[in-house]
UniProtKB/TrEMBL annotation:
Species: Marinobacterium iners DSM 11526
The UniProt record lists the keyword Oxidoreductase: yes
Enzyme class (EC, first level): oxidoreductase
UniProt keyword annotations, A-Z: Antioxidant, Oxidoreductase, Peroxidase, Redox-active center
Protein name: Glutathione-dependent peroxiredoxin
EC numbers, comma separated: 1.11.1.27
Example of a GO cellular component annotation carried by this entry: cytoplasm
Boundaries of every Thioredoxin domain copy: 3-158
Length: 158
């Protein structure tokens, strides 16, 4: 069963790229006392994720933050090096590129999916949420496309 509105984000240790290399972060620390927009993609550098999903948040980052959002976080079941390279490729300077290397966060959220049939393995579903002090206020999951989890949809909900 997937996480629901009103639930608390599970605490999982993940990775971000720091100045000295990969750094461990606790999801609880990323969300505590903050208003956060979190969005997840099935994979870095994939077509829909690279052409539409992440770029929408890059372009709208200032508008989203102007609505009182402290952080914008992008997560995917990719390693920290891939997430860092993808963020640099997309000029995602205002977005925390959170690596869920083995899919532990996606699984803990109940928002994982098995894409082994297309040789992707276990990945995250595509979704976006608004989280306030660790509690989910909005959760939009896309079955197909990017409409429910787009930057424009999230911005309209803020």
């Amino acid at each position: 069963m997937s996480i629901q509105i009103g639930d608390t984000i599970p605490n999982v240790e993940l990775r971000v790229m720091g100045k000295e290399g990969p750094e461990a972060v606790q999801t609880a620390d990323l969300f505590a006392g903050k208003k956060v927009v979190l969005f997840a993609v099935p994979g870095a550098f994939t077509p829909g994720c690279s052409m539409t999903h992440l770029p929408g948040f890059v372009v709208k980052a200032d508008e989203i933050k102007a609505k009182g959002v402290d952080s914008i976080i992008c997560t995917a079941v990719n390693d920290v090096f891939v997430m860092d390279a993808w963020g640099k490729d997309q000029n995602a300077d205002e977005i925390i590129m959170l690596a869920d290397g083995i899919g532990e966060f996606a699984s803990a959220m109940g928002l994982d999916q098995d894409l082994s049939g297309i040789q992707f393995g276990k990945r995250s579903q595509r979704y976006a949420m608004i989280v306030n002090d660790g509690k989910i206020e909005l959760l939009n999951i896309d079955e197909k496309g990017i409409d429910k989890s787009s930057a424009e949809t999230v911005l309209a909900a803020l």
